[in-house]
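Bench notes, afternoon.
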Amino acid sequence: VQLQASGGGLVQPGGSLRLSCVASGFPFDRFWMHWVRQAPGKRLESIALIDPPSERATYADSVKGRFTISRDDAKNTLELQMNQLKPEDTGVYYCMSTIDGTPYFGQGTQVTVSS
């Protein structure tokens, strides 16, 4: 199982970023996919998840209305569109899935929201 996240960077408050995660090594279209993040000094937070195949999405209150999770099962790709970014969105973002009871995380991509 491999999860390769990308797209992080430095952005000003109010800006946008789009994260991508390419998955391999498992039948992507059968599994729920998550974006989780870890802010400095804080615990891991699940912020968005999307199910197959209905693509129903669920969001944490902290990002609801600003972030949009999506998936392309043909390309084994998970994305997170992040708008209206706030300094408290700063952290390392991971794509993640639980497969046969084992959680798998990508390597993470750093998002920094600062003026």
